[in-house]
Inverse folding.
């Protein structure tokens, strides 16, 4: 996809463009069907409610859940805050312990740290050089007081896929709830909350070609997970999340979920081929580049590459024609090297020389070829003796 | 759709054309506003342009606008820092404010729905209070509170003042400083903007600990990727609402037309009629007919109104707002809310009068048969 002139968008982990079919589905609800889904006294309200419930079902289908287990939120940040603080606070007396990974998204880590200040006990586990959790280490970390294990299905920076089914079986056998931040996973890898024994699962609309400002939290009913809500108010979403449901956004998320489910397998295959094409081409031009995170246990739309002797900030600034990132978008403005790469044992100078390449629904072979050329040209320029002297 | 005359603008408003256009334009562009590349910077510009319009609507600078997922989140954010026992709220607040406070110590209101300032003074003197919350205009009755007096009491006692301006925005001129408020909540979908976005206006120098953490957006005050299209719609709606502020006052003509027609003929109670009220809102009873019956019958006549706040309209319990005003349960149970908005017309007012009369006549006929 090349909007903004001829710039190639390769930052699909930061956000995905809203699919035109999603916008199409939302339009009537931005127009004549504008009702408040909680208005029970007229048809404007009923129509909006019906649409919200249909969307809830589409979303539930994507993850093998029941519709009533899906709670709409304003996005994955809220879902993660709600899941972690909600469970942490509700079960604090009997089970104060929370386990998570050092490579989780900031909003998970911040929520866990908040709980720690409030009196919960926290264990933050490291990961291997491939970015994956060590199951034995996880098993050792869970104890009788562990209320919650929070492990993201797919990492936002390095795209690695954690073994959720194994993690889920372990948590279930030890009586701890499992929460997963699936913002980067939903619609990209198959998810089944029952097969994987996932108790809470966070979803983001704008990471799966839906709109921004909407997300969801799956909350298991059997065995029931109880939560302390983040917001007090009208008692919407069965008391778990107060606030008027934004019907157009719910419809957008539901449609995005249906499209993702329909196209998951074929899109994974297409993106896998594009990623292979990218990797081979860039390796041919920059043989000493390094791939961060597991090569196999990885979503097809992600590469995280270090180019020794370069600086990613300078690379990005110089790459006028390709939009990539050096890590998470939330922390784009920060100068610190990625804490995720650091957790993998990547040295700071290599971490500072890394780019996250995100491929997605509108990425073409031609774009991959052009992007590789531009990135490799810029790397060579930065590494040339002239550039060194200027720097 | 059975109803085609929409008079439930206090529940939600139809999207203004300018807001719709802004959203559709934003939805078609990719990019995360936190990303440093061109796509991200274009999205950032959309967010910051909208922030200017929202700031102008609230009478503040752009640095004081924190975008949220809506009014409920904004109200929670304003009050979540404090021990619920140190939060004093008026008895007629929206549920999102009411539930943030402990049940102890509600500021009572009089029969007109106006907060009792003497009682507020006593409550402030008698307990440890960090923050008080008094809404600018009530969602069910439209009654406008004497905020200047409330603010001076708050200042006197050194407590923070939070003002839920969700229903007032776009209907009354807002100015954080003039109101004497420390925080102010806004909701886009009540002013012709989209659902799923709102704002908390925060006085300069006031540090609130964030409700949502992780990501550092909104100057670390509210984490989460910004709802760019929603914010774009909010900005456009705020701009349009500000431009329409004078004509919004003109909605009083429609409301008064309805109240004059219905009040003259029947034993109708209009709640808050003797208090300053929003021009668009009428909360009135149809004697002898339950509100639920009225709204269903009116819906069949093509008129969409409500029996109270939308979020609680699934529940059958009596309105806490009318109860706080000392309304009799039976009368309160016969009250419906008619709320006009940016696209309402004289014909809408006439339609609701005609439909109301028909529903009323049918109910009387039924009672006559029964007798």
């Amino acid at each position: 996809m090349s909007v903004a002139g001829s710039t190639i968008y390769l930052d699909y982990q930061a956000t995905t463009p809203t699919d035109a079919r999603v916008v199409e589905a939302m339009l009537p609800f931005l127009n004549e069907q504008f009702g408040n889904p909680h208005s029970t006294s007229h048809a404007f309200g009923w129509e909006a409610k019906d649409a919200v419930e249909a969307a809830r079902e589409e979303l539930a289908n994507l993850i093998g859940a029941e519709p009533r287990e899906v709670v709409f939120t304003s996005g994955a940040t809220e879902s993660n805050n709600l899941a972690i603080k909600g469970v942490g606070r509700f079960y604090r007396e009997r089970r104060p312990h929370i386990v998570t990974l050092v490579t989780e998204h900031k909003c998970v880590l911040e929520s866990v740290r908040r709980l720690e200040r409030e009196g919960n006990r926290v264990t933050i586990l490291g990961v291997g050089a491939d970015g994956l959790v060590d199951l034995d280490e996880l098993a050792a970390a869970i104890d009788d007081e562990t209320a919650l294990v929070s492990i993201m299905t797919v990492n936002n920076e390095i795209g690695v896929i954690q073994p959720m089914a194994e993690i889920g079986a372990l948590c279930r056998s030890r009586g701890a709830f499992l929460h997963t931040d699936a913002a980067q996973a939903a619609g990209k890898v198959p998810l089944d909350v029952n097969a994987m024994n996932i108790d809470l699962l966070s979803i983001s609309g704008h990471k799966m070609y839906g709109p921004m400002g909407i997300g969801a939290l799956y909350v298991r009913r059997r065995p029931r997970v109880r939560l302390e809500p983040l917001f007090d108010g009208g008692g919407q979403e069965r008391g778990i999340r107060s606030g008027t449901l934004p019907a157009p956004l719910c419809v957008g998320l539901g449609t995005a979920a249906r499209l993702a489910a329909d196209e998951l397998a074929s899109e994974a295959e297409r993106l896998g081929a594009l990623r292979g094409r990218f990797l081979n081409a860039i390796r041919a031009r920059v043989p000493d580049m390094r791939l961060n995170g597991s090569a196999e246990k990885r979503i097809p739309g992600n590469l995280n590459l270090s180019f020794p002797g370069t600086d990613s900030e300078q690379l990005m600034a110089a790459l006028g024609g390709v939009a990539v990132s050096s890590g998470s978008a939330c922390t784009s403005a920060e100068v610190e090297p990625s804490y995720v790469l650091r957790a993998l044992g990547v040295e700071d100078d290599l971490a500072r020389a890394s780019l996250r390449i995100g491929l997605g629904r509108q990425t073409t072979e031609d774009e991959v070829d052009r992007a590789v050329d531009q990135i490799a040209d810029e790397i060579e320029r930065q590494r040339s003796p002239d550039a060194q002297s200027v720097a | 759709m059975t109803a085609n005359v929409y008079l439930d603008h206090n529940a939600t408003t139809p999207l203004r054309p300018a807001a719709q256009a802004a959203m559709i334009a934003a939805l078609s562009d990719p990019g995360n506003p936190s990303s440093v590349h061109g796509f991200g910077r274009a999205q950032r510009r959309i967010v910051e342009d909208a922030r200017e319009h929202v700031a102008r609507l609230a009478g503040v600078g752009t640095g004081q606008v924190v975008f949220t997922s809506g009014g409920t989140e904004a109200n929670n954010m304003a009050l979540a820092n404090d021990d619920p026992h140190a939060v004093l709220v008026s008895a007629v607040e929206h549920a999102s404010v009411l539930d943030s406070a402990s049940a102890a110590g509600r500021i009572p209101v009089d029969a007109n729905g106006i907060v009792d300032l003497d009682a507020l003074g006593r409550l402030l003197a008698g307990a440890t209070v960090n923050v008080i919350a008094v809404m600018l205009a009530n969602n069910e009755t439209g009654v406008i509170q004497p905020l200047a007096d409330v603010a001076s009491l708050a200042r006197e006692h050194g407590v923070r003042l939070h003002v839920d301006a969700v229903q007032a925005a776009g209907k009354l001129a807002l100015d954080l400083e003039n109101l004497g408020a420390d925080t102010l909540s806004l909701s886009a979908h009540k002013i012709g903007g989209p659902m799923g976005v709102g704002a908390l206006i925060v006085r300069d120098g006031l540090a609130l600990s964030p409700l949502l953490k992780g990501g550092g957006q909104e100057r670390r005050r509210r984490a989460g990727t910004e709802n760019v299209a929603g914010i774009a719609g909010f900005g456009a709606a705020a701009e349009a609402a500000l431009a329409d502020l004078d004509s919004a006052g003109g909605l009083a003509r429609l409301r008064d037309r309805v109240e004059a027609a219905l009040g003259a003929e029947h034993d109708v109670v209009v709640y808050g009629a003797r208090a300053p009220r929003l021009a668009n809102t009428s909360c009135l009873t149809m004697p002898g007919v339950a509100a639920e019956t009225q709204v269903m019958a009116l819906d069949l006549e093509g008129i969409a109104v409500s029996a109270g706040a939308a979020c609680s309209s699934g529940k059958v319990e009596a309105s806490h707002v009318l109860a706080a005003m000392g309304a009799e349960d039976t009368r309160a149970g016969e009250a419906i809310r008619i709320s006009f908005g940016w696209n309402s017309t004289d014909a809408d007012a006439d339609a609701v009068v005609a439909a109301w009369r028909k529903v009323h006549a049918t109910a009387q006929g039924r009672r006559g048969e029964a007798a």
